[in-house]
Design brief:
Layout: H1 9-19, H2 28-35, H3 39-54, H4 66-79
Helix pairs in contact: 2-3
């Protein structure tokens, strides 16, 4: 059974960004409307969130850091283990 995902503010914001995109670019005006932020603030929040995810700086109490999860997947693929 998959583990439960804890919904937090960053995850909800990321989902709103995804909904407000055409999968190539994000409409930060639409994100701003949905989040009560100004468009530049929404853009900056996304930039900071993306940087934190890419650097593996997730809150460890919320789950596995991205860099650790990616490493585990790469190691499993390299071993040829398929479950």
């Amino acid at each position: 059974m998959p583990s439960r995902i804890q919904l937090n503010e960053s995850l909800a914001f990321l989902y709103i960004c995804l909904q407000s995109s055409d999968y190539k670019s994000i409409d930060f005006n639409a994100v701003a409307e949905k989040t009560s932020l100004k468009p530049p603030a929404a853009r900056m929040r996304f930039t900071r969130l993306r940087r934190a995810i890419e650097e593996g700086a997730l809150d460890r109490s919320q789950g596995t850091p991205v860099s650790t999860a990616v490493t585990a997947v790469e190691v499993k693929a390299a071993d040829g283990d398929d479950e």
